[in-house]
Amino acid sequence: AQSVAQPEDQVNVAEGNPLTVKCTYSVSGNPYLFWYVQYPNRGLQFLLKYITGDNLVKGSYGFEAEFNKSQTSFHLKKPSALVSDSALYFCAVSNTGKLIFGQGTTLQVKP
Amino acid sequence: EAQVTQNPRYLITVTGKKLTVTCSQNMNHEYMSWYRQDPGLGLRQIYYSMNVEVTDKGDVPEGYKVSRKEKRNFPLILESPSPNQTSLYFCASSNPGGGYEQYFGPGTRLTVT
């Protein structure tokens, strides 16, 4: 069965510091991997995706993610966090068109 | 503007009173889906539709119905709501196939008392 795990319920980081939000997955075949962000009282917004090719994927708002096939991970990263990055982040996987979401990680960036 | 709209955004109702949450997209997407979001559980798929008149169950379909009579609309129907259906609901749409990102509506917060 396909599954996605986000091992941290919350990540705290100081503004200006690098951030990482972790995601591991379990899926048969070649996965499509996604990151979405949810701001308070808003729907989910697409950040980036990995389909194939370069393991480092760049997305919106300066975010990037690294696909690691051997570790079945797809961690979200940003070199310098902003207070406005504070939100709920979801990792998701698909290989059949159906999205399977992780439970979400709250990112808190403090000034 | 490309968007997915949902109505209503907030709804408080009582057990057993039928309700419908509407969803509409203006991107000519073939694929549409409904999710519910509950704390600590992420988003779980309720139903999805690959195209007009084609719908299928997701992971948590019990207590819900859907229909897809037009490409742009995908309403979610709760025939007899119960308190365990209190949740935040999202509609989403995308092009078909696993590699396309989904576009989400703003959400409907439903409370069933």
Word description of this protein:
The complex is a heterodimer of chains A (111) and B (113). Chain A is 0% helix and 52% strand. In chain A, 37% of the residues are buried. Chain A is built from no helices and twelve strands. The mean pLDDT of chain A is 93. With 113 residues, chain B is mostly beta strands. In chain B, 0% of the residues lie in helices and 50% in strands. Chain B has strands at residues 4-7, 10-13, 19-25, 31-38, 42-51, 54-57, 65-66, 76-78, 87-94, 103-104, 108-112. In chain B, a hairpin with an 8-residue loop joins strand 9 (87-94) and strand 10. Chain B is globular. The N and C termini of chain B lie far apart (36 Å). The model of chain B has no long low-confidence stretch (mean pLDDT 95).
Structure summarized in a few sentences:
The complex is a heterodimer of chains A (111) and B (113). Helix content of chain A is 0%, strand content 52%.
Average pLDDT figure of chain A: 93
Q: What general outline of chain A do the C-alpha atoms trace?
A: globular
Computed over alpha carbons, the radius of gyration of chain B is 13 Å
- How large a portion of the residues of chain B is in β-strands, by DSSP E? over 45%
Topology as H/E string of chain A? EEEEEEEEEEEE
One letter per element, helices H and strands E, the order of chain B comes to EEEEEEEEEEE
Rounded mean pLDDT of chain B is: 95
Low-pLDDT stretches of chain B: none
* Shape type of chain B: globular
Number of helical regions of chain A = 0
* Whole-angstrom Rg of chain A: 13 Å
Intertermini distance of chain B: 36 Å
Roughly how much helix do the residues of chain A carry, as a percent range?
Answer: under 10%
In percent terms, what proportion of residues of chain A is strand?
over 45%
Largest sheet of chain A: 6 strands, mixed
